[in-house]
Write a structure and sequence with these properties.
By secondary structure, the chain is an alpha/beta fold. The protein has helices spanning 13-18, 20-30, 65-69, 108-118, 135-142, 145-155, 180-188, 209-224, and strands at 9-10, 35-39, 57-62, 76-79, 93-99, 119-130, 192-199, 233-239. It has one domain: Rossmann fold (3-Layer(aba) Sandwich), CATH 3.40.50.150. Helices cover 32% and strands 21% of the residues. The radius of gyration is 18 Å and the shape is globular. The two termini are 21 Å apart.
Length: 244
């Protein structure tokens, strides 16, 4: 298979974030999805919403029984470590997807191989994730977890008290911008890269106005002159070859 740098849709950060659930929902309806698994959706699964009623089988897969216990009771839940090979449920889903999960996985290859195996031929694996070489995410990867929790309390006060937006250890493996190397990784487990959207910039410097102004200037420059390795968030759509 020839590995090419994908054509990328560079979108406004808020548009990418807020548009993700409608994008996945529209994709599922267009593809005629009947069986869908939301990965790492624990406490706040998208698939619990009424808009997903067209799917005959909706399941949330998460490693944490505590998070799954917070999920609405109108979806099936399944406890599983997605970084260990999953032997049950192969070829069971038309769509698997996640949001803000991939950066927390210590073995990205096993995770994406599990996604591939869970899908029927022609099925889609869709993921929203932050990309590593944005400075706050790079720091998040390097600093101890206790220091990370303290930092979250300063830049996002009240978040940890909510109970449904906890902070989890972050590794950022395979969480990169739309480079040729990134495409090759997905292809190495059998996927075809069907679509890639990305954005630049973030809001983590809002409490430090001079840094925030510099970040906004950098973001404007990158939108005019995109550098794939310097994206901040991305949405990747992967397809398992074959026909459903």
């Amino acid at each position: 298979m020839t590995t090419d740098t994908p054509r990328v849709n560079y979108l406004d950060r808020v548009e990418l974030w807020l548009g993700y659930e409608p994008f996945v929902l529209d994709l599922a309806q267009t593809e005629g999805v009947k069986d869908v698994a939301e990965l790492g959706g624990g406490a706040n699964p998208f698939v619990a919403g009424e808009k997903w009623d067209f799917a005959q089988h909706r399941v949330v897969i998460d490693i944490s029984p505590d998070e799954l216990a917070k999920a609405p009771n109108n979806v099936e839940t399944r406890e599983a470590d997605l970084c260990r090979p999953i032997s049950a449920g192969h070829n069971s889903y038309d769509l698997v997807f996640s949001k803000m999960l991939c950066e927390h996985l210590h073995d990205a290859r096993v995770f994406h191989q599990n996604c591939f195996n869970l899908l029927r031929p022609g099925g889609l694996s869709v993921h929203f994730f932050p990309t590593l070489f944005t400075l706050p995410f790079f720091i998040n990867r390097l600093i101890p977890e206790k220091a990370g929790l303290s930092l979250i309390n300063k830049i996002q006060p009240g978040r940890l008290e909510l109970g449904t937006l906890d902070k989890f250890p972050a590794y950022y493996r395979w969480c990169h911008g739309p480079t040729r190397r990134a495409v090759k990784r997905y292809e190495s487990v059998g996927f075809e890269v069907a679509d890639w959207s990305a954005t630049f910039g973030h809001t983590y410097y809002q409490v430090i106005p001079p840094l925030d102004a510099l970040e906004k200037s950098k973001t404007e420059f990158l939108f005019r002159h995109p550098i794939p390795a310097l994206t901040s968030f991305a949405v990747v759509v992967l397809r398992k070859p074959g026909r459903r």
